[in-house]
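Chains adopt folds. We examine one example:
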Amino acid sequence: QVQLVESGGGLVQAGGSLTLSCAASGRTFSKNALAWFRQAPGKERDFVATISWSGSIIYYADSVQGRYTISRDNAKNTVYLQMNSLKPEDTAVYYCAAGHGVTTNANGYDYWGQGTQVTVSS
């Protein structure tokens, strides 16, 4: 059974930092693109960041560029999202996803985690 399990979410004040982790089990994702999306209450799921299997290709949403850093450790089958200078508008459930290729489109990802809540207070 393939599972993606996110962790690291929580409550933080504006300007603070959090690091999310997503551990995969059930199969290796070393040849898959891995990504983070987020969904705020009443809104659609939005792209945040994605990284190719080698780490050589990385894309960020404009809203997080310069504040977030995505990385991966293929030996640990894990993807990370370092989030700095957090803003209240970053509040959302954050999901990790795995797919065949690097894309900002959620439809391009076949496997999804259950999500972890990030709340940024003002």
Q: What stands out?
A: The mean pLDDT is 95. The chain has no helices and eleven strands.
